[in-house]
Structures are given as C-alpha cells and as structure tokens.
C-alpha cells in the first residue's frame, strides 16, 4: 500500500517539526530525562505488512500500556471472576485518584487506572511468586511481539519503586478493603516491573495484533483470547484507556487505545491495523501530546475510525 | 436478508418471555404507568430495508434519546464553540449528579448528562423563543424520521415540569456560574418538552440513519452533518450515552448508543444499521434492562460490534 | 467597668487604621457597594450595661446572622423534630456547597449553612404564609432587641432574589429529596427577606442577650428558650457558625459566634456578654476580616474565651 | 464535694445497667476482645481532689486520645509552624477518610484525624529516632499523670501494625504530596505505639489537668504549655475531637473532648475539671457510646458545659 507509507512518513515529518510537544512525565526521573524530540510510529496491518517512521525502533518505557497485557493474562487466569474485583466504567478521574476507592469500597473503576491494574497484578500473583509473574508477563509480551529482546528496564523499575508513594497508598487502601490479597510491596513489585518494560513502536504494534484480529495472532494463527474477549478489551481501551482524557481521545481519534506516561500509545483498528506511536511529551491529562495528534492525523487520512461507516 | 428477520423475531420472542424486566422510571408518573411488558425493536439498514418486531410501532417517550438530536442542532448552530460550555468526557456519575458542577465551575462533563443537555438547550435558545426552539426541534426530528406524526406528549412534559426539581437545581446551579444565559424556567421548558417527544422504534431508527451514514440521510441524500461530526457524535454516544453505565454498554454491546428513562435506546452500527429498541423497565443505572439485552443479542448474532474486526 | 470602655475604644481605633480590611461580598450588589472603611462594635453585659465604639449604631445587612433567630423560632415551633431534617455537624465545606446534599440525600449538615437555613424557613412556613413568617421573625428580633425600628431592607432582599441562583439550586435540590415541603420560590422569599434584615451592632448585641443568659432575656426576665436549648444553640454557633472557617474562629476567638456576609458577627460569652461587631470586608472564607480580628483582641484582653479557665 | 461523689456513683450505676452499649472496635483484634461490660469514670478537680467510679483503675488502650499529647509535644517542638502542614478545621468526614487529602494536596484537616496525627508524629521524628520519640512521649504522659507505671501495650501496637492498611495508605499518600518527610513505616511505628499506650481513667484524668488549668500542671506548678496554647488545644478538641461526631458531642455534652476507638474519652471543663471516661462499645461514629452518655449526664448535673452561663 503505497499511500500508507506516504501517510506515515508525512506524519513523522510533521511531528518532528511540531513546536508544542508537551512535557515528559516529571515524577519518575529516568522518564523526565528522555529527550522530547523523539517521535516514532509503527503500523502492522492484518496482512502482516508493516509501516514505520521516525524512532520506530527505539525502545521506550511502555508504562501503562502494559496494563493491556496484564489484563489479558488475568482474564486468562480467572476469567470473568476478575470483574468482581474491578469495574468496567470510565472513572472520570485522574489515573492515580484515590477518591472513588473510598466511596466504592476499594473496587477500582476499571483495570486501566492505576488502582485497577494493581488489583490485576494481585490476581496474577495467585499463580506464582512475583519473579515468576514478571517472567511470565515478559514471555507473554515477547511471544505476542515475536521478539525475545524485549526486557524490563531495571533503572526505571527502581525509580518507580522509590517515588511511587501514591501507588503504595492505592494498594494499601485496597488492602484495607480486602481487595488486595498479597502485601502491597509484593504486588507493587510486579506493577513497577511491568510498567518498566521497554519496547519499540514496532514491537508494540506487533504485540497488539491479536486485538485487531479477533484474538488471533495473525502470523502464528494462535488464539490468544476468544473473539468476544478481544472485542471487550478493545471496548475497555476505548472507554477507559486514556484516563480522564478517554472521551477526548474517542472524540478526536476514534480508536481503542491505551496510553502510558512514557509517551507511548497502542491503538487498534479492528480488522485493519495495530498501531503504536511514541513521543515522550505529555498533555495535561498525562497522554502523549504528539502521539495523540499523530493518531488523529492517521485516522483522518485512512478513515479507520471505528465511528465511521465501514 | 432472511436471517436478520429471523434474528429480530427471535430476539422479540425472547424478550417477550424474559422474567427480569427491570422497573419503569418511578419519578415521572406517566412513565411509571407504562406497562413493563412492552418490547419493541426496529432496524434500518444502509440500503433502506427495515426489520422490526414486537411493539415497534407503539410511540413511547424518548426522553434523553432526544439529547442526540438537540446536540446535533446546537452543533449546527454554534459549531465547536459549544465545547467551551460543555465537556466531552464520561462523567463517571449518575445522569442527574450535581457534584462535578461544583468542582468544575458549572461546566457539565458532556452533552448527554442532564446538566449538559440543559446547556445545549440554552444554546438553542440563542436562536429563538422556547416555543420556536421546540417547534424547530420537532421539525428536525420529523424530517430525519420522514414522519410528520411525531409529536410532544404534553402530559409527560407537564409531569416533568412538576417533578423535575433536580433539573431545576442543575439549571440554577449552572446559572450561578454564568453557564446558563436564559432563566432556568425558560430553558427547562424546552428541555422538558424535548424529553417528552413520543416516537416509535421504527421512527427512532429512521431518525438515527444519518449517524450510521456519515452524516447523510440515506433516502434523501441530504447532508445533515459532516462525516467528521457524525463520527464525533457517535464517539460521544459510545463514551457517554449511558451515563455511569456507558462502560458496561460498550463492554456488552459495543455500539454507540443513547438511552432514555422511557426505556428507549438508539444505537448505531456505522455504515450498517440504525437500531432502536424499547422496553420500559430500567436497570439500576437507569438504562433499559431488556433494550440492552436485546442489543447484546443482536450484536452477538450479527457481529456488528465496532470493536470486532471488520 | 472602666477598662472595658477603654478596651472597646482601643479596638475600634486599631480597626479604623487597619490596612488589610478584606473585600465586601461582591455577588449581592447593594452589599458590594458598602464602604469597607466601616467598623462597629457593641457589647451588652449580663448586668445590662453597654459598651460601644465606632459605627455601632449604623444599620447593616445581618445576612446569615439571622439564621440564629430563625433556628430559635423553628425549635420553638417543632422542637427537636427539626433534627430529622437538618444535621448538627460542621460541614467542612463552603456555605453554599451542594456536594454533601447529594451524598446525604438532601439533609443539610447544620442549620447555619445556607441549605440548612432554607430548611429551617420551610419549617417556619408550616405555621403561616411567607408574609406572616417574615412579619413574625421581625417581631421576634424587635422584641429581643427591644427596638421597633428594626426592618427589612427591601433593596437587599430584591437583589438577593435576583442573584441567588445557588440558593435556588440548593432549595430545588432538597425539594427533589422531599426535604423541602413548600415551593422553592416561597421558601426563598422568606430566606432572602430574613437575610436582608438591617440592624446595628447595638441592636444585634441586645438581640443576642438571651444566648448569654441561659435563654432568658435579662431586662424583661422573659424565657425565650430553655437553658438547655440556649446552650445547644451556642454549641452549634461554635462548631458551625463560620462555615468552613469555624475551626479557625474557635481557635483564634474561642466564643460561639455567627457571621454574615454583610460583615457582621454575633458572638456570645455565656454568662458574661453578648457582642456584635461589623466590618464589611470579608476574609477568604466569607467571614468579616476585621470583625474576627476585633473579637480576637477583645477575648485576649478580657479572657472571655470559653476555652480558658473560668 | 459530697454531691459530686454521688453524681459519679449514680452515673456509674446507670452505665453498668445500660442495655445499649455499642460495639467495641472490630478491626483491631485485641480491642475487639475487650468486654463491653466495662465502664469507668474519673474526675480530677482544680483543687486536686479526685472522684472515681466503676473500672476507673483498669488500664485500656487510649488510642486517639494520645493525639492530644502528641499535638502538645509537636507544638512544643516547632510551635505554630506546625500549622503549615496541618489544618485546624473540622473535617466533616470519618476519622480515616482519604478524600480530602486528594483535593487539599496532602494537608490534613486537623491534628485529630488520623492523617493529621501522622503528620504530627512526622514532626516529632524531626527530633529523634522512632524509639526515642516513643520514649519521650511515654515520659511526657507519665509526667503529666504523675505515674511511672503507664506503658505501651505491645500486643496492641503489633495488631495495629498488622491491620493498619488505611493508615499506611494515608501516610504514603501524604508522602506523595511531600507532607511526610520520613518513610511511612517509621512514622507509623511511632503512631501505632502511641495509640497503644494503656492508661486507666484515673491516669488519663490526671494527665489532662494542664488543659483545664491554663497550661499549668496543678500539683507541680509546672507550665506545660502557655495559657493561649492550652485554650487553643481545647478549642481544637471541641471542634475536631470526635471526628464527624464532633458537632453532636458539642451539642450534647458541651465540653472539649477527645475520643479514642478503645472507648476512652478525655474531656476538659476549663478551670474546673479534667475528666476521663471509658466504655469499650462505640457508636456509629466510632466514639464511646456510654462514655458520651456519661459525660452528658455529668454535665447535666454539674452545669459544667462551656456553653452555659458561668
């Protein structure tokens, strides 16, 4: 597809020159140190063809994008029982808000806010020790991406551990309500390592293919999740994937997507494409400023919005 | 399409026999009096063909479904300036919550919670007197549905006026913040009449066709809104159309939809179908119990979810 | 008492020269127009002697100070049944906050926040028409102060009516919960007139005598309320009389007191004195800046704090 | 004083027979195990005379009553600088609520809610290691009570450590806002030990004498705090000493008081008496059911309310 190459290249050029790039996350020192000049984009189509531009092969900290993979694993482990401990509604609040936990008795609104992802990790710890859970998650992501080089950036993991007071508060608070079964330190050990997984746009786009393809990994034909589960994860990404900026992302981009404070976004055009963008500068809601803009441009040129006529 | 007839008939049969039907809205007497045994469904496809079953031709009070039409008109009137006075994020709160208005200085979260729809009506009143605004809205809906018989149920309008204390509170509160320009009584006069519009499933499905068809009314070829605006209204319906049950609706059904406490839901499968269902009993979030279930069944059988591969 | 004359004169002199006077309430035009240079103080001792200085005889809008008199009347009318409809706890919120009403089902935290005072007026309307209720309240206050000249400033009452959108919102909201029995317009008619009562410091200090004297009006010997009720009203003034600045007032001044946005404060030293101060400029919590400071000075010089050894 | 002996004995007899005794705190196992049949009362008058009845010499866990002593020490250490990190307003919320911390950027409402007491302990840790801080606090309380037998119940301290997830959450949350300078584990080590101090009513009443006597310990003549500071601590106890039941306690009892979930209450009648009551059963706000009732009876018979004429 000649034109998609062109579209992707044009977007990368526009983003390289964009003056307003947002600000990298400041509260995790290794993230604050990343050069905001970076921009990368990678697209994997249903037929396996790939399109990439900019820093598409530079690894970055995927942070909360990892919540998609953790959720997928937890649903595999306990199925719909998970929903007894986590909701499925947009929170209308910031990613690290604790207010709703108090009025809603320790049940997080959805698996993509921090509190929800912490519960997801607690579920995963029902299957093994922290080290094993992280190992298994890494194997899962490597398998999805078909790339054994994917790893955890220990510097980032340690920095999160040292500064993650709000996450400790969330975990302890849920433990008070009985919605965390393991000690906070243990669960957050998994959480911080999961957030510190480093991937490039190309790797991330490949890892997201099963969500575009009804749960099947296109190249291997392996069924990762059922079609119904793939659809539902996409729905959650659409309504909850960008915290209190989810409505805006749906309005502007119109694709299921999950952002991370490292500046990455994984987006899914069901049946068509798995897309990863990365630019470290964030907007005021904590989502990648240029990543969002790049996806908006992409959808404008391709008509891939799920809200457009097929 | 033989099989769609069958699907629709099967759904109507299943819903007729469903034991758990929810409870009709109790706080508006004429709505409380509606027989919960009703169920209707109507589908209009992109090619103009229609499929209907159950009480598809019985008019009911569309209530908040009308917010879609009012929003469309307000965007036509003032364009994206509207978003200076109304947000685009799911609220995470009940349809009539007033809490966020206090912390967010009178700006409602989105145009589909009551407060947001009241601001939308205030915008429409910039163009004429209440009577004219209601008249124009009725003409608009009649034009969309191609049916001059659509009318306002004055009994319902009066009952809302008599019991709508929370709506008065919302309006007065926004007026205190300067986000309501006309007197509350005047704006709510429009609001209560708009909610009291009575339509059948068939009429409603027809009225929603422009949202499935990129903004164009299929039979007349008239452009109601631009493709971009149609897509964006769909996005808002998906993230905000069912109040604090929007995430659940996206998860289970996976279509942009807008519900009303009269038990109606308008849902859109972009490029494929405009769908209306009606059953008066509501679930605990105030959305039609059987209407939601019927749409879940429909999507299961047709694969129309926007989160499925195309 | 020679020295009290001196203390009062010194305070008035200090306040006349104070540079930081706060800002008069801006949202009610006739209040915004009052000269912030004013300061008055009047003290009535248990023996009937009076001490005054500054603008002690200039009438001002008592605003929320009137809530003390309305509460006294409502307790006289329905007794402790009142507490089924109003709480007795500090709100921790601004005087006109609506948030707690939502989570607490329309029951205001206490009778001294706006919502609580509106319920109190609704109770009084159980005994007569709005005009009569206002008439009776005026007679009550005139009797307490021994001064028939006390009146309602109709200009202020009308201005409140025109700008009191938040109060309308509070009233309508409580009506939605069934905690307002009369139409909002009727109840607020009483409320706005009550707030618009104009009194001088001297009149106000006299009117508060029954609260210092165990419920008895010292000069007439009439029992206005029982000793127990007087004590309890004092307790409510201490914990709730200055909205979300009540803790600060108790900390700095240490007397039961009720403030109004007109800049007046009525304070009570049980067994010793009834005190009224007035200065139109408000601090950031909506309480008189210099009025509070003057009372702090007074208590410092007299040792009248209820938290000091007797 | 013959009659006070009689009053105290009568109260103890009435409380021994009271049918509705509330429920001991359930979330700390050693507290849950305490027999709800206990009731004790002890009063120390300004002249040093003591009146006691019931289980007045049985030690119990003073829990949050210790916050009064910790606050006194912290004010001694850093003076009014403390108020840059803790507010002075009633919270209107439960003792362990975290909601206000989010909107108020990690500054607790007052030093008597858990979050505030944790900050107070963090301040004390500016002067020494945890072990020393606890040692000094114990020495302080022993000195106030004139009783070297007072000790920390290590079983209780350990149980709090094991179950205090909400306190960990509060501490971590404030650390995220920079309002906790030491690690949460360290600060809570102090906090849990302080709460686990065991004292009898007689010891507690003696320890509170400086608050009734303008800051001076009556038997030794030592100045513990200035008269102004004593008055202000009393004011804080009145407005904030019973969490979201503070208004009710002021309304019914009318004395500055601080309660603990162990069922103890320390109350102060300035210039007259220091009073301690204990009964393990709590009311729905977490304050001693019979302790409150006993104080209400006491004030009724003695006229000691600070809201009564002197």
TrEMBL record, chains A, B, C, D:
Coiled-coil stretches noted in the UniProt entry, renumbered to this chain: none
Under the heading Gene3D superfamilies, the entry gives:
DD-peptidase/beta-lactamase superfamily
Q: What EC designation does it have?
A: 3.5.1.2
Specify whether Hydrolase is a keyword of the entry. Answer: yes
* Keywords from the UniProt entry: Acetylation, Hydrolase
Q: This protein's superkingdom?
A: Bacteria
Report any Pfam family annotated for this entry: Glutaminase
Enzyme category, top tier: hydrolase
Q: Name one GO biological process term.
A: L-glutamine catabolic process
Q: Which residues are noted in the entry as substrate-binding?
A: 64, 114, 160, 167, 191, 243, 261
Quaternary structure (record): Homotetramer.
The name this protein goes by in its record: Glutaminase
Q: Which organism is it from?
A: Sphingomonas kyeonggiensis
> Top-down, what is the taxonomic lineage of the species of origin?
Bacteria, Pseudomonadati, Pseudomonadota, Alphaproteobacteria, Sphingomonadales
């Amino acid at each position: 597809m000649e034109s998609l190459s062109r579209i992707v290249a044009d977007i990368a050029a526009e983003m390289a020159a964009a003056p307003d790039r947002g600000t990298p996350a400041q509260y995790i020192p290794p993230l604050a140190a990343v050069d905001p000049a970076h921009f990368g984009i990678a697209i994997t189509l249903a037929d396996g063809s790939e399109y990439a531009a900019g820093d598409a092969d530079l690894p970055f900290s995927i942070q909360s994008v990892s919540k998609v993979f953790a959720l997928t694993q937890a649903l595999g482990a306990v199925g719909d029982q998970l929903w007894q401990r986590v909701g499925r509604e947009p929170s209308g609040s910031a990613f690290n808000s604790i207010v709703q936990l108090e009025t809603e008795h320790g049940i997080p609104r959805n698996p993509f806010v921090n509190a929800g992802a912490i519960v997801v990790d607690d579920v995963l710890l029902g299957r093994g020790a922290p080290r094993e859970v992280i190992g298994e998650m890494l194997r899962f992501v490597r398998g999805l991406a078909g790339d054994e080089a994917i790893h955890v950036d220990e510097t980032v993991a340690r920095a999160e551990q040292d500064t993650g007071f709000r996450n400790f508060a969330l975990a302890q608070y849920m433990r008070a309500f009985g919605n965390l079964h393991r000690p906070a330190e243990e669960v957050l050990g998994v959480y911080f390592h999961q957030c510190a997984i480093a991937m490039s746009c190309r790797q991330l786009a490949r890892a997201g293919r099963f969500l575009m393809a009804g749960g099947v990994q296109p190249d291997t034909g392996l069924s990762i999740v059922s079609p119904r589960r793939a659809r539902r994860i996409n729905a959650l990404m659409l309504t909850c994937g960008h915290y209190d900026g989810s409505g805006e992302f749906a309005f502007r981009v119109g694709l299921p997507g999950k952002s991370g404070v490292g500046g990455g976004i994984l987006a899914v055009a069901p049946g068509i494409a798995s897309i990863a963008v990365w630019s470290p500068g964030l907007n005021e809601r904590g989502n990648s400023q240029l990543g969002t803009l790049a996806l908006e441009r992409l959808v404008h040129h391709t008509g891939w919005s799920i809200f457009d006529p097929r």
